[in-house]
Amino acid sequence: GKSGHMNLAKEVFEKLPQPNQSEYTTIIHCYGLNGMGIQAIELYYKMPKEFRDEGIYISVLNACSHSGLVQEARSIFQSIETKTEKIYSTMIDCLSRASLFEEAQKLIDEYDHDHSPSIVMYTALLSGARNFKNTDLSQNLYDRMVKLFPQMASSLTSAAVLLANTYASSGDIDKASNIRNKLHKLGQKKQMGITSTVVNGISYKFRASDRTHPRSKEIHAECEKLSAELLQHGHQYDSSWITRPLNEGETIESVLSTHSEKLAIAWNFVANPGALRIQLTKNLRICEDCHRATKLIAAIRQCEIIARDTNRIHHFSTDGKCSCNDYF
Ligand SMILES: [Zn+2]
Ligand SMILES: [Zn+2]
Questions:
Q1: Where would one find the signal peptide in this protein (predicted)?
Q2: Which of 118, 136, 254, 276 is the most buried (most CB within 10 A)?
Q3: Position 188 pLDDT exceeds 70
Q4: Nearest ligand, CA of residue 306?
Q5: CA angle 258, 262, 266 (to 5 degrees)
Q6: Rounded Cα gap, residues 227 and 176, in angstroms
Q7: Is residue 172 located within the same domain as residue 147?
Q8: How much is the average pLDDT of 187-215?
Q9: Distance 286 CA to ligand 2 centre (A)
Q10: Burial level of 60, CB count in 10 A (0-12/13-18/19+)?
Q11: Cα 134 to ligand 1 centroid, rounded to whole Å
C-alpha cells in the first residue's frame, strides 16, 4: 500500500482476525507514507503493547513527522524506554521538518552525551535547515560534521551538497558554486583503496568487493568464514566505516568483510591454508574496521600479519595486538 492503494490495504488489514507484529508495522508505515498520521497514532495506541519495537516506533514517529504532528511525536518519543540511534534520528528528523532546530539540537546533545556522535542525526538536522533556507545553521552544522566525522567521506560529500543547495536556494549563488567546485575537484582526486600482497612469490592486488581474481569464489567464501569467526569472537561491524551508499542486497557485514585488506588476507589463507605470516601493502591508511578485524584474525588463526599503509607498518601479532597500539 505505498500510493493510492491505502483503502484496499486498510480493508485487508481490518479483515485480519489477529494481525501480527509485522502487519501492524506495515499498516502504520503505510499510513505514514500516505499522510494519515492520525490513523497511524490511533492504531499505535490500540495495538498490543508487547508488539511495540524499534520498527513500530520508527513507523509511528515517521507518520507523525510527515503529518506535522509534533506534539504527538514528542509524547510517543518520551514514552519509549529504550531509545536506539534510529529512534533518535527519526525524532530529530520530525523536529527538523517542523523547523524546531533548537529542540532537535538538544536531542543530538543528549544522544552524544552517552554515545559516539551519529552522522545520521546531523544530516537530518542539516536537511531541515536546508528546507527552511537557514544558511547560518547549515554552515555551522557542516563545520561540526567535518570535525566530528573526518573519515566519512561520502556522508560529508552529501552534507556539502546539502549546504550548497541551502546557499543556492537562499540566493547566495557564489557560495553555492564555490562549494560545488571544491566537490568536483575532490571527486577527481579521490583515490581508490588497493591492497597488494605477495603470495608464493607472485604479487596480487585487490580492490574492495573485488571479484576479478580467478579464484574469487574461494576467496569470498573464505571472507565469509573469517567474518563468522570474527563475529564469534566479539567483532562488531560498525556502519560508520562504510563510505558509500549500500547497493541492493548488500549489508554492512557484506561490505566491510570484503574490504581490500580482508580480501588480501583471505587469498593468503586460500592459497596457503596454514599460513603463519601474511604481508600486505595498502595504498591508503588502513581502515579502522580492518585494523580491529586483523588483530582478531591474527589471534584466531595464529598467524602474524604485517600491513604497511601510508602512515606506518602494523605488526599484528598472534596475541591479538598491533605494534601501533591502535594509534594510527
Ligand atoms: Zn576496511
Ligand atoms: Zn596497527
A1: none
A2: 118
A3: no
A4: 2
A5: 105
A6: 43
A7: yes
A8: 89
A9: 8
A10: buried
A11: 36
Helix and strand counts by DSSP (H, E) for the chain: 15, 5
Q: Which ligand is nearest to the CA of 252?
A: 1
pLDDT of residue 325 exceeding 50, the answer is: yes
Coil/strand/helix, residue 318: coil
In a domain, 89, yes or no: no
How far is the centre of ligand 1, averaged over its atoms, from the C-alpha of 221 (Å)?
Answer: 17
Mean pLDDT of 109-128: 93
Q: Which domain holds residue 228?
A: 195-316
Which-ligand-closest: CA of 307? 2
Is there a single domain that holds both residue 296 and residue 205? yes
How confident is the model at residue 173, as a pLDDT?
A: 87
Q: Could you give the 3-state DSSP secondary structure of residue 47?
A: coil
- DSSP-derived 3-state class of residue 204: strand
Order of all β-strands in the sheet with 202-206: 202-206, 195-199, 277-282, 304-308, 313-316
Domain boundary among 131, 164, 190: 190
**Separation of CA 234 and ligand 1 centre (Å):** 17
* Number of the ligand closest to the Cα of 313: 2
